[in-house]
Each structure stands twice: as C-alpha cells, then as structure tokens.
Design goal:
With 490 residues, the protein is of the alpha/beta class. Helix content is 43%, strand content 17%. The chain has helices at 14-20, 40-43, 48-59, 66-74, 106-110, 113-124, 139-148, 167-174, 190-203, 225-228, 233-244, 264-275, 291-298, 323-330, 335-347, 355-364, 372-386, 392-407, 426-434, 441-452, 458-461, 479-487, and strands spanning 3-5, 11-12, 29-30, 86-89, 92-96, 129-135, 154-161, 181-187, 207-210, 213-219, 254-259, 279-286, 300-302, 350-352, 365-369, 414-418, 473-475. It has a six-stranded mixed beta sheet, with helices on both faces. Strands 9-10-6-7-8-17 form a six-stranded mixed beta sheet, sandwiched between helices. The model has no long low-confidence stretch (mean pLDDT 96). Bound molecules: pyridoxal-5'-phosphate. The site of pyridoxal-5'-phosphate has 16 residues, from helix 12.
C-alpha cells in the first residue's frame, strides 16, 4: 500500500510512514482505502485481537508478523479479552474504550504503536534512536509513556498544557518512570503544544546526527498513521457485537457518536466506512470549543475565536490535525488544494472548503456541541435514570447523540464512544452527580467509588503515593531547543 502526503507528491511505504510520523513537507500520510482493502464481512468473524491483526496487516501491509505482534501488544493489558465492551445504556449503546492501562481510549492504539515502531525499525534497518515527539491534551501523553517507556531504541518526549489537564492526568504523566522518557509542561494550550511539536519536526533535521549519533524523529499523535490504523478496530468490534446480540442484521447501518478533539478517533470511523463497514452517520461531538460543529455546518474553519478551558480538557482543541486527511479525501486527493487551505489556516487563521468538498463530508458527518452546563447535566441525568456513570468527554457525546436523534429520521442503533473512565475526571464527575466540590482528584475518586460501589481502577488509585519526577515548564516557542538540549544530554 502506498502512502501519500496530503501536501505534495511525496510517497512512503507504511513502515516508512510509521517511522516518520509526519511527511517531510508537513503533510499527513494517507492511503487509498476501499472495499478492496479487505473483506469486512470476513473480518467480523474473528475475535477482537484477530480483527485488530487483520486490519493492521491490511493497512500497514509491509510490517510483517502482525498477528504475533498484536497478541503480544495487548496481552494482559486490557480488562477484558474483547478489549472494548459494548454496553446498552438507555436507548443508546456505549462503546467503552477506556478499559486499558491508562483508562483512556488512547490505550487501544498506543499499546500496539511501540510494537509497530520496533518492527518497522528492524525491517528498515534503522540505526540510532527513534525519538518520539508527542503533544498531548492529557490522555495521549500517559498512554504513549505507558507504551514507550524503556522500549529499546526509542526515546519519548511528551509536552502538555500547563494547568490545562486534570489533576489525575497530570499525576499520571509527572510520575512516569523510565530511562528514555521526558515529560514537560508548556505555558499555553494544546494547540500551542501541537504547533511547537510540528515546528520541531520542521526545524530538527528529521534524520539527523547529534554529536555523531544518528537519530530520527517520529510521532505518537494521531497524525501518525500507526496511531490511527489501530483505531479502526473498535468500530468493527462494536458492529460485530450488535449483530451477535440480534440488534441488527449483517449489512444494516449503525450511527456512531464520537467525542472529538484532534479528529483522529472519528476519522478512524470514516476509514472503517470506506473499507465497507455499514457506518451510517458519524456524529462529531464537541464541547464549548465548537469549531468543528461550525465547520460541518458552514464549511468555514475559523480558529480566530476564544479558546475555552472545559471539564473535557482532552477535547480543548482548535486546530484538529486529522481534518486535513478528510479534506484530502473530500477533494479527490488534490494536495495542492489541501496545501492552500492549510497555508490559509496558519497565515490567516481560517479557510473555506468548497461546495463539492462539503457535499462529500456532509454525506457522512454531522456536528453537535454541548456547553459545560449541559455536560454536567447529562452526567447527572444518565446516572440518575440509567445508573450509568460516564466521564465528561463521553457526556459531551451522549448529549450530541440526543440532539442528533431529535434531528435525524434514522432508526439505526446509535453507538456512543466512551473515551475515558469517569475516575480520570473524578472532580468534575463528582460535582455533576452530587454537586459536591472536591478539588482533590484522588479524594473525588474515592467518593465516586463509594457512590457507584465499583472500585477505582488500580492504575489511578496507586498514583497518589508516587513521587513527581518531571517538573519542567517551558514556553511553547522553546520546545525545539528544549528537545535538542535534552538529546545532547543536557
Ligand atoms: C483524545 C481524546 C478525545 C479526542 O479524540 P481525537 O482523536 O483527538 O478526536 C476525546 N476524549 C478523550 C478522553 C480523549 O483522551
């Protein structure tokens, strides 16, 4: 399979794309996906791990030994064999993606990415370290650290917004051990971190020498196709569950509602659709940072707006990187057009997608947003009526699902993707259900646990006693120099 950049005629194999993370021209790697890519009906016959292995073998076709690699990557990491359970809640289904080691959906992809990277390094005969640069709004950081710490031949940097993540998210990252990890807070928001990291890619020679030692840069963000490809699996797993439960017949369509930030998770759903999975609508759910809702409704993407810090911080994003891949698809692979739009976004702060592009996008996507009050009210209502406790990100999606149902004529089942454990955002969730203000995330976790009768996930409760190992805070403009200095051993 050939991967092409969204911004020029640069191409790569899948192994090269995984190792590079981002194309040398700043574009994202995309492949042509269709019903020829693999047989989706046959795919559904496998168990969750088999589905994952088959998808990865098809999408990352020149990385070998995928079946063994996949089983090794997930062994003992998730609470259940099925990886991502599907739970009926009220009139919807909740797809629980947070049953992995760091309690967020990023674990599904980041459990396997280090293994993909290691295999690709060996196959390509990469000399020197692969340096993974990661910008995080809170969850990618820990999931990437969990996956990459002490992985031979790699070194990982994580940059997160100072005062922009939950107390538990911060504790998860700041207490991370491992000889190859660097965690650093950045004054600014996620967009500043992401821009700083993208600049570092442009400014640090991507296959450079440092004091005579070779190294190469890569990414653990969903701009890396190796991070995105593993995220298709749970759309198939959910669909399989609905067929098995007799809720749908094979071939019936299913709508998915996705709490969205960088547009990676929802794009994976669109990729599943391109391969043939009967995905009806993909509902893009946003919090008060409703730039994607506006884009889907108007075709204008305008980041010249206020940035809100919300209780769903992993979605506090104004520049959603993966939308670039959808723009590329919607323009029929016109990289010149995509380059122009991306240039307009960075120079003027906005762009307008044309009518043909929006027609393509609107065929599959809908956008809804939800403010802070609605998010809290949704958590409380679903807890009171259904006895199901959801985190703030999932609540944004649940609320969007309700709005979508009102507008939609479709009778297809609605699957709401649940991207984080409620314990991870315990203070906000506790306040939503009981009105109690408990700023200490760990105390809030305990109180939630009393309320639900379910134990706090061990990986979260044990953080309370761990020493903080990472305390650096820098300006976003200092990211490149910070990386270079650390690489030089400073
Ligand atoms: C990362 C994240 C999201 C957003 O996913 P994208 O792929 O960036 O759109 C939503 N919820 C949670 C909890 C997350 O960690």
């Amino acid at each position: 399979m050939i991967y092409r950049s969204t911004r020029s005629n640069i191409t790569a194999t899948s192994a090269e794309a995984v190792l590079q993370g981002i194309a040398p021209d700043g574009g994202l790697y995309v492949a042509e996906l269709s019903t020829e890519t693999l047989d989706w009906k046959k795919l559904l016959r496998g168990d969750s791990l088999q589905i994952q292995a088959d998808i990865l073998s098809a999408l990352l076709d020149d990385i070998h030994g995928m079946e063994e690699l996949t089983r090794r990557a997930y062994a003992g990491k998730f609470e259940t064999e099925e990886l991502t359970p599907l739970v009926p809640v009220g009139e919807n289904y909740v797809l629980e993606l947070f049953r992995g080691p760091t309690c967020a959906f990023k674990d599904v992809a980041l459990s396997v990415l280090p293994h993909l990277m290691t295999a690709a390094r060996a196959q390509e005969g990469v000399r020197g370290e692969t340096v993974i640069l990661t910008a995080t709004s809170g969850d990618t950081g820990k999931a990437a650290l969990e996956g990459f710490h002490d992985v031979e031949g790699t070194r990982i940097f994580v940059f997160y917004p100072h005062n922009g993540v939950s107390a538990v998210q911060k504790a998860q990252m700041a207490t991370q051990t491992g000889g190859n990890v660097t965690v650093c807070a950045v004054h600014g928001n996620f967009d500043d971190c992401q821009t700083g990291v993208k600049n570092a890619f442009a400014r640090i020679n991507s296959r450079g020498l440092l004091d005579g030692n070779p190294f190469s840069l890569s990414s653990a963000n969903s701009i890396n196709i190796g991070r995105l490809a593993p995220q298709l699996s749970y759309y198939f797993i959910a669909y399989k569950k609905l067929v098995e439960a007799g809720r749908i017949a094979l071939g019936d369509s299913v709508d998915f509602v996705v709490p969205t930030g960088n547009f990676g998770d929802i794009l994976a759903g669109f990729y599943a659709k391109l391969i043939g999975l009967p995905v009806g609508r993909l509902v893009c759910a946003s919090n008060a940072n409703s730039i994607l809702t506006d884009f889907l409704n108007t075709g204008v993407y305008d980041r010249r707006r206020e940035f809100y810090k919300t209780d769903s911080p992993s979605m506090d994003i104004l520049v959603s990187s993966n939308l670039e891949r959808l723009l590329y698809l919607s323009s029929g692979g016109d990289w010149e057009k995509v380059s122009t739009l991306m240039k307009e976004l960075s120079e003027k702060g906005f762009y307008t997608a044309d009518g043909d592009m929006m027609a393509y996008i609107n065929e599959s996507f809908r956008g809804y947003c939800c403010n802070e009050r609605e998010t809290a009210e949704t958590i409380r209502r679903v807890w009171e009526h259904e006895g199901y406790l959801m985190d703030t990100h999932t609540a944004v999606a649940w609320n969007a699902a309700e709005k979508y149902r009102k507008d939609s004529e479709s009778s297809a089942p609605v699957v709401v993707l649940s991207t984080a454990s409620p314990y991870k955002f315990a203070s906000s969730v506790l306040c939503a259900v009981s009105g109690e203000e408990e700023k200490d995330g760990f105390a809030a976790m305990e109180k939630l646990s009393e309320l639900t009768g379910a134990p706090v996930p061990k990986s979260l409760s044990e953080l309370a006693g761990k020493p903080e190992l990472h305390r650096d805070v820098i300006q976003s403009g200092e990211i490149t120099d910070y990386i270079l200095q650390k690489l030089k051993g400073g």
